[in-house]
Write a structure and sequence with these properties.
Layout lengths: L1 H5 L2 E3 L5 E3 L1 E8 L2 E8 L5 H32 L20
Length: 95
């Protein structure tokens, strides 16, 4: 179900393609839950938490990717190192 919710996108009047459903991970009674909401009707508190959690995940993913690339390069010193560019400024080609 989470995969289906994550894949629902819409396009707004300005032509922005945006994800419709957003989750907030939380714990209740010792159980971890994902609470889903629709971006067009969710309260600001939910969306603020969802955006912050997604940002933290992106930061973690970039950190882990840096570790993986550095490890690979360290064990292949006789080859040209893999370059990892983490500057996303021009990543979408719109900037």
């Amino acid at each position: 179900m989470a995969a289906a919710l994550r894949e629902e996108y819409r396009t707004d009047e300005a032509g922005r393609h945006y994800r419709a459903k957003h989750a907030v991970r939380t714990s209740r009674d010792g159980r971890q839950l994902a609470l889903w909401a629709d971006i067009d009707t969710a309260p600001r508190t939910h969306m603020g938490k969802a955006f912050a959690q997604r940002r933290r995940q992106i930061v973690y993913d970039c950190h882990q990717l840096r570790q993986d690339v550095d490890h690979f390069n360290s064990i292949h010193r006789d080859e040209e190192p893999v370059q990892l560019i983490l500057n996303f400024e021009d990543a979408c080609g719109k900037y």
